[in-house]
Design goal:
Layout (H helix, E strand, L loop, with lengths): L2 E9 L5 H15 L5 E8 L6 E8 L2 H8 L2 H10 L6 E9 L7
Antiparallel strand pairs: 1-3, 1-4, 2-3
Helix pairs in contact: 1-3
Length: about 100
Amino acid sequence: MSIIVIAGTIEIDPAKKDVAAAAAVEIMRETHKEEGNLAYAFSQDLENDGVVHIFEKWESQEALDFHFKTPHMAAFQKKMGSLGVKGMSLEKYEVASVGSVF
């Protein structure tokens, strides 16, 4: 079975970055409680206030599928409409092996 990694960016209205951060913290807290979630993080780009980076790691596709059906994901997606989203680029990776960088 492969580890699933989701990585990418969301481009938002920089004036909405505080609202976006609050929404991100809320969904991160709930997602960390989900079975099969290994990592789930949003981070503000240090050079561009309008770019938010996303990193997720899941034990399985089934765990990710469950995540997409949760109430907190639905609430987050609804909030996305108020963030002035200008673009989004997310990619899914199926990782066959994992090892230390050093």
